[in-house]
From TrEMBL:
This is Uncharacterized protein. GO terms for molecular function: GTPase activator activity; small GTPase binding. It comes from Lotharella oceanica. Keywords: GTPase activation, Leucine-rich repeat, Repeat. It comes from the Eukaryota. One of its GO terms (cellular component) is nucleus. One of its GO terms (biological process) is nucleocytoplasmic transport. PANTHER family: RAN GTPASE-ACTIVATING PROTEIN 1 (PTHR24113:SF12). The keyword Cytoplasm does not apply. Signal peptide: none annotated. The keyword Ribonucleoprotein does not apply.
Length: 426
């Protein structure tokens, strides 16, 4: 009886006037049938990946309930296209990585595939029986249709790339660096750089590619022998327009091989050889190539050792070149002879828009006035970097002359970019 009385008291509420009121009964809600269906679909997504087959108004609720970590990539890649699912999958799996979707064709599915591929390769280690390689090839197949950019910043094991990536028909950008990050006291020289076997397999991959346009191989300890091997693949390829070989060990023989490629109808438009070991002879090879090639638009030999004579040879060749628009010869031990060639080139070249000659001794105070006169007549040049060449008094009028041209060029480029997006929207 005592328990019944207490239960009755708890069911009554007494207001401030002393009147007793019954507590409102709790509302019992029966779940909607469609809510139950969405919940079942979310829980069974790995067994029955039917997300793309439900009505659009239920998709967001279903994705919210899905445990993306429980869905195998094999199943998801084959059966799920929905971008909300791939967005959640990417953010859940890599919460600390930047998710710059614009760098992945505005597609979360592609972003996930490319991140997944990077993780597979950078964590791979070979096994004696080859099972790890077989597993890698099998998993890579699921990502193949969606991958356009491959970027590996720490390839730790030698993999036959032509075998693993050879069937990637949509591959457009390849960015590889062999080595280890954050290795600490475990450093060994042999762990870094592209070996000759790597160069051979990569050469085959490049030679067979039908869509590849950009190749970046910086910081790979590439030498002249590596370039000889890679060059055979590049020579067979007619789609690559951008090649970055910066921060390697390429010297004059490698420069000769690359310049020969430029002479043979190469489609390269941008060649970056910053921070290598190219000297005067290598500069002469590139000068010879510039006399025959009008496709290359940008050339960087920054931080090499081409010396004053090499710099002069290249600038003289530009008197007869109609294609190059940007050249970077900064930090190359250039001097008076290059300065004379610069004045000559400005009189004859009407296509070059940017020259970087900083950290040299190209322009003396005495030549400043002659350079100003040449720049006033040459109206196509919009940027000339002469920092650490001469006094600020000589540089100031040159900067004042070129600044309006540079601003106008940026405005034109911005308008072209916007017009391009407008055409896409239309």
């Amino acid at each position: 009886n005592e328990k019944k009385e207490k239960a009755l008291e708890s069911a009554l509420l007494v207001d401030f006037e002393g009147k007793a009121e019954e507590a409102p009964p709790q509302e019992l809600r029966v779940p909607r049938l469609d809510d139950l269906c969405v919940r079942v679909l979310a829980e069974a997504i790995d067994r029955h990946p039917a997300l793309d087959h439900i009505k659009s108004e239920y998709v967001a609720a279903a994705v919210e309930l899905i445990n993306t970590k429980a869905v195998s990539y094999e199943k998801a890649s084959k059966h799920i296209k929905n971008e909300l699912f791939w967005k959640k999958s990417a953010i859940t799996r890599w919460p600390d990585r930047p998710h710059e979707i614009a760098e992945h064709g505005m597609s979360w599915r592609r972003l996930y595939a490319e991140y997944h591929l990077t993780e597979l390769f950078e964590r791979y280690y070979p096994s004696k029986c080859g099972t790890n390689l077989e597993a890698l090839i099998r998993e890579v197949e699921f990502a193949k249709p969606y991958v356009q950019t491959v970027k590996f910043t720490q390839l730790r094991a030698q993999i036959n790339l032509s075998k693993v990536l050879g069937n990637f028909q949509n591959l457009q950008t390849l960015n590889l660096t062999y080595g280890h990050r954050n290795i600490g006291m475990g450093y060994e020289k042999s762990l870094f750089g592209m070996k000759l076997d790597d160069a051979m397999s990569l050469s085959v991959l490049i030679g067979n590619s039908k869509a590849l346009t950009r190749v970046t191989l910086k910081e790979n300890h590439l030498n002249d022998e590596s370039i000889q091997v890679l060059g055979s693949g590049i020579a067979k390829n007619n789609t690559i327009t951008f090649l970055d070989l910066s921060h390697n060990k390429i010297s004059d023989l490698g420069a000769q091989r690359l310049s020969n490629l430029l002479k043979r109808g190469s489609m390269l438009m941008d060649l970056n050889l910053t921070d290598n070991n190219i000297r005067e002879a290598g500069a002469a090879h590139f000068a010879s190539a510039l006399l025959e090639n009008d496709v290359l638009g940008t050339l960087s030999l920054r931080q090499n050792h081409i010396t004053d004579s090499g710099g002069a040879t290249i600038l003289k060749a530009l008197c007869e070149n109609d294609g190059l628009q940007e050249i970077d010869l900064a930090a190359n031990e250039l001097g008076k002879e290059t300065g004379e060639a610069l004045l000559l080139m400005l009189q004859h070249n009407g296509h070059l828009s940017s020259i970087d000659l900083c950290s040299n001794k190209v322009v003396t105070d005495e030549k400043g006035e002659l350079l100003m006169q040449a720049l006033q007549k040459n109206t196509t040049l919009t940027r000339l970097d002469l920092r650490k060449n001469t006094s600020p008094e000589v540089l100031k009028p040159i900067k004042d002359l070129l600044r309006p041209r540079h601003v106008k060029e940026k405005q034109i480029n911005r308008k072209r970019y916007q017009d391009g997006w407008d055409m896409v929207d239309d």
